[in-house]
Design brief:
With about 250 residues, the chain is α/β, with parallel strands linked by helices. The chain has a single domain (about 5-254), classed as 2-enoyl-CoA Hydratase, Chain A, domain 1 (Alpha-Beta Complex). The protein is about 30% helix and about 25% strand. It contains six helices and twelve strands. Strands 1, 2, 3, 4, 5, 6, 7, 9 and 10 form a nine-stranded mixed sheet that branches. Strands 8-12-11 form a three-stranded antiparallel sheet, with helices on one face.
Length: about 250
């Protein structure tokens, strides 16, 4: 299997967004997603189109997906999730630092999900923006409700929880420790403490209840085994998360 590394250079620093590489043998492919989901205005982030194309090139019977992401574009995230589910390999997801927002949905693509003991998992309502009339804004509200219903269904299928309870947890922006995520049914196993930490500037994503230990904004982490220190996550407009623009409607992120 070929090595695939997607990087861009910004401010003179290499920015690794995801990496696909051989593990100990050709029987396992390691995939690292250590960035926001969806390409931003600046060209940062993990775009679904190229990721899915690179994923199709994997012939190994097993994929170990390492995840550390604050979320981003709901549609890119769903496309990445679906590409992983459709792949013939057995997928194991390792949550190394943070699986927040749409990254929590990507995590559900794993046949088995292992979360580091010091990692965090977060679910919340999708958000969006629109410029236009009251009718335009009501259409946006309908789209957001449909997106939420879809994601609630995905969470419910994985966890066995009641849809109403999950909808409430999303509305409240719920952050789970590894033990809480295990108890809630989102993950299958708690792994050892990982060196990858949730090192993103989460203030840019509009989250309301970020745990105190994540309010600082160190530089975003690099993919293990790569040099360089990428800058903080940025988004579809300066200082905003990745967005998906819907022509005639507005943008949606999650």
């Amino acid at each position: 299997m070929r090595l695939v590394t997607t990087t861009r250079v910004r401010d003179g620093q290499p920015r690794p967004f995801y990496e696909i590489r051989n593990a100990a043998s050709d029987d396992v492919a390691e995939v690292f997603i250590y960035e926001q989901i969806g390409e931003s205005f600046w060209g940062d982030g993990v775009g679904a189109k190229k990721f899915a194309a690179d994923l199709r090139a994997i012939t190994a019977p097993r994929i170990d997906l390492h995840l550390n992401s604050p979320g981003g574009s709901v549609f890119d995230g769903q496309a990445i999730h679906n590409a992983l589910v459709r792949h013939p390999a057995a997928v194991t997801v390792f949550i190394d630092g943070l699986a927040a927002s749409i990254a929590s949905v990507i995590a559900l693509a794993g046949e088995r999900i292992i979360m580091a003991s010091n990692a965090l998992f977060m679910i919340h309502d999708p958000s969006g923006g629109v410029w236009g009339t009251s009718d335009d804004m009501m259409k946006m509200a309908e789209v957001l409700d449909k997106i939420k219903d879809t994601i609630v269904g995905q969470y419910a299928e994985r966890t066995g929880q009641a849809a109403a309870d999950l909808a409430t947890a999303m509305s409240e922006e719920t952050w789970y420790t590894a033990q809480e995520a295990l108890d809630a049914g989102f993950i299958d196993e708690i792994g050892v403490e990982a060196s990858a930490t949730a090192a993103f500037d989460l203030s840019r994503f509009g989250y309301r209840h970020v745990p105190d230990n994540l309010t600082a904004a160190p530089a975003a982490p690099t993919v293990p085994g790569q040099g360089g220190a990428p800058g903080p996550a940025t988004g579809g407009a300066p200082d905003s998360p990745a967005d998906t623009w819907i022509p005639g409607l507005g943008f949606v992120n999650f």
